[in-house]
UniProtKB/TrEMBL annotation, chain A:
Keyword Transmembrane helix: yes
Keyword field: Cell membrane, Membrane, Transmembrane, Transmembrane helix
Native organism: Aminobacter carboxidus
Pfam families the UniProt entry points to: BPD_transp_2
This protein's record includes keyword S-adenosyl-L-methionine: no
Subcellular location: Cell membrane
Name of the protein in its database record: Branched-chain amino acid ABC transporter permease
Highest taxon in the source lineage: Bacteria
Spans through the membrane: 27-44, 50-70, 75-92, 104-123, 130-151, 186-204, 234-258, 270-296, 308-335
Recorded topology in the membrane: Multi-pass membrane protein
TrEMBL record, chain B:
Transmembrane annotation, as ranges: 23-44, 50-70, 82-101, 116-137, 170-189, 218-238, 250-279, 285-310
Lipid bilayer topology: Multi-pass membrane protein
Keywords carried by this UniProt record: Amino-acid transport, Cell membrane, Membrane, Transmembrane, Transmembrane helix, Transport
A Pfam match: BPD_transp_2
Listed name of the protein: Branched-chain amino acid ABC transporter permease
TrEMBL record, chain C:
UniProtKB keywords: ATP-binding, Nucleotide-binding, Transport
Domain called ABC transporter: residue spans: 9-257
Classification via InterPro entries: AAA+_ATPase, ABC_AA/LPS_Transport, ABC_transporter-like_ATP-bd, BCA_ABC_TP_C, P-loop_NTPase
Protein name: ABC transporter ATP-binding protein
Xref: Pfam families: ABC_tran, BCA_ABC_TP_C
Tagged with keyword Chloroplast: no
UniProt xrefs under SUPFAM superfamilies: P-loop containing nucleoside triphosphate hydrolases (SSF52540)
PANTHER family: ABC TRANSPORTER ATP-BINDING PROTEIN, CONSERVED COMPONENT OF ABC TRANSPORTER FOR NATURAL AMINO ACIDS-RELATED
GO MF term list: ATP binding
Amino acid sequence: MFYRETGQFKQSYAADQAVFPILQDRLGLAAILVVAFVIVPLFGNEFLLASVMVPFLILSLGAIGLNILVGYTGLLSLGSAAFMGVGAYAAYKLSTIFPGVNILVWILCSGFFAAGIGVLFGLPSLRIKGFYLAVATLAAQFFLQWCFVRISWLYNDNPSGAIEVPARTLFGLAITGPSATPVTRYLVVLVIVVGMTLLASNIVHGRIGRTWMAVRDMDIAAQLMGIRLLPAKLLAFAVSSFYCGVSGALMVFLWLGAAEPSAFDIKLSFLLLFMVIIGGLGSMIGSFFGAALIHILPIVIRGLPEALGLPIAAATVEHLTYLIVGALIIFFLIVEPHGLARLWQIAKQKLRVWPFPY
Amino acid sequence: MLYNIFIDPFVQMAQMPDLLVQTLWEGLVSGVLYALIALGFVLIFKASGVFNFAQGIMVVFSALTLVGFYEKFSAAGFSGHTAAFVALVLTAGVMFVLAMLVERVVLRPLVNQPDIILFMATFGITYVLIGFGEMVFGGDPKQMIASELFLPSGSVDVEMLGGMVSFQKIDIAAAVIASVMIAGLALFFQKTRIGRALRAVADSHKAALSVGISLNQIWVVVWFAAGLVALVTGIMWGARSDVSFALEIVALKALPVLVLGGLTSVPGAIVGGLIIGIGEKLGEFYWGPLLGGGIESWFAYAIALLFLLYRPQGLFGDKIIERI
Amino acid sequence: MTAQSETLLAVDGVSLSFGGVKAITDVSFDIRKGEIRAIIGPNGAGKTSMLNVVNGFYHPQHGRITYKGKTRPRMRPYQAASQGIARTFQNVALFRGMTTLDNIMVGRTLKMHRGLFWQMLRYGPAMREEIENRRVVEDIIDFLQIESIRKTPVGKLPYGLQKRVELGRALAMEPELLLLDEPMAGMNIEEKEDMCRYILDLNKYFGTTIALIEHDMGVVMDLSDRVVVLEYGHKIADGTPEVVKADPKVIEAYLGVGH
Ligand SMILES: Nc1ncnc2c1ncn2[C@@H]1O[C@H](COP(=O)(O)OP(=O)(O)OP(=O)(O)O)[C@@H](O)[C@H]1O
Ligand SMILES: [Mg+2]
């Protein structure tokens, strides 16, 4: 009734080529942005901001990165955590070598380092496909993680082997380090994530995005349309790794505050993959859904026994979390293999014809 | 530098052949164990096209179940060889139930979905097994009931090439049992009705359906077979170290083995296992110190990656024909 | 078209084999600018392989291909595409996860040049380029009468429409040489008639040169200017439809010995 496109005739192809052609979608998006930028920081408590929203946004960014590779270009990767690590270590090195430059500049620049490494490990993708490629990306995962441990220059010979975030400010406001308040950190992350999501969404809706999807759906036909596979795939690796890299840098600088190499281990790669698949392959909004589910669900499960006053040991809760997350992955795949994003679309479709479904 | 990389290791090998033999042997044994895990993957991939990520965790899970049963028995005052073998049979039963559950709950509803979805579903299975296993058995490492299962311990020291080379008896046993197992599987595929049916399914799902083979049964059978392979692997591996969820990361090593051999090939899994096992040990021992050690964590993947560049379908994989 | 017009593509003594299988043996023929050239022959004769050779997907062991007056070295498919050779496929090879519109827009890839920076902003030059190309694509959509399925994912379309979208995608490349591999296979009479009309219109109004593989002899006789006949990888006849139809070797190949 209220959500429909009838009556909204596009006067131009420009309007029809817009990312959100339907008015209500744009209104909905605006509402979400208002909630995210105004309501949440005003009314959210520290826990919500620091432990729920900040990680959720950062993981969403990583998931978008991985989605560009897996969902849009069809290249299965199990090494995304390592690329996040590259971003984190690059940002750390840059910020300690050039402390005078604003930290946000380095966080964004770290993406370029991740992109470079990503392209390097993407080179084999021209010859290697499918699961073979997935295993080849494990080489990146384990090799890079080994580098994070062995190359002490990367963590400034810190005896703990961890990188610790220096305190930095923006316009006089602490944004990293212990004195940064959750609200400022949240807002900084939010701005970066929203901005980068917008750019990613533009890319995938244009020529480059179509090129990627063509490669994904049928690479031979794509070639015969004049698409060169190697540049297309490498670009996907570069953009994807850029996003993962920035997400990794944000993770250390604005979420964790310090990180050991194990923060970027294969478990994180798997988690990102879950987010992408459960959220919806080839969907921007799906990346957010997936990150929300995979990050927030365990928090809820952990919090539940306490809230209900059940005496369950912490270890058991941890195991239960694994069990439930595993079961839910299977459940969601069975209910909707195309992910939460598709469920969302179906819901919108229903809304479009409501209340007269015939 | 170049000397250190290209010459020195070989000089070392020639100077101390006994050490070389020792390293080769250790590589061989871990290669056999990698091959066993990879074999479980191949079984399932061949028959159902599912890339079963859970194979590694099935190894841990089955070993834990075995030890868990035995502990229950000995707590009830019933221990020794008989108890161990009863536990073994019960564990096999558990693996059968697991196969049934997987088929019912996961595979059947997901039939005809794209590969990546099934792959993801096996991630779900992995997580469920980790959560369930840790809840039931706890997170602490456990001792494998090796001697109760008549597995030897200790070592044979052989004097050769001007030095002592020591062979762990359990490693010898592992190599023998793995070989028997592989031969057994090969026979099963070639000679039995269900084995032939499996091959038919591998060749073409439609063909198998049209001659009246039930896909569901076959899935249960392959998952059960993979479960048994996992159990054997778990016993051998557990006997060499402890049984714990830390094995999971080792099980990931089966992946490079698998792609090296070609996803669908049983001989490929074996040859791949040996190449990776031996290559990794040699690499760690002779080249590792140059890089600061610990290269075992990624060396296997690097070998697989380089090899795949040369032959994208693996050693024995079917050649990828692109047509349009 | 006129028989005197110049040669667009010349295939000269091409042989292609896969391991032991000889798909094409010493085949020569030419395609003239502006004509509709049919390639016919029984199943497995090597017709599809021939098209694959022409657009660089297969590389023949022997022989030469001259396109637009230049004898070309071994080339890759995307190079063929950038030289104006477009193609449809025997088994529909659309991008199944994308909409009709996006599929056809992919055909415009070579006409779009704005790089990552502008694409990222989706503004200014990138947006202008997007709209210009959208306009061309809309013309094609009009021409093929597929307006109503613009935003439908192609995986959900019936077969006949998929073939039409595939033609649209090839047209979006504004090809000089259009290779059609059994564009009418599996269609009913009306769909075939539509498809014939599109092909004739294309040829007549846009002057597109067309090489066409087709099993339906009626269609071939009606559409094509000249026909080349392959059997077991050999060329057994070449000429106008009337000549070819009367050729005893062709009759034998199609009806088998003893008929
Ligand atoms: N990539 C390939 N690898 C091996 N053999 C091939 C390949 N492509 C084609 N062939 C073989 O080449 C021969 C010719 O095939 P082609 O597809 O060109 O025939 P066709 O004339 O198009 O037949 P149809 O009318 O059935 O489409 C066949 O024997 C086929 O099996
Ligand atoms: Mg053909």
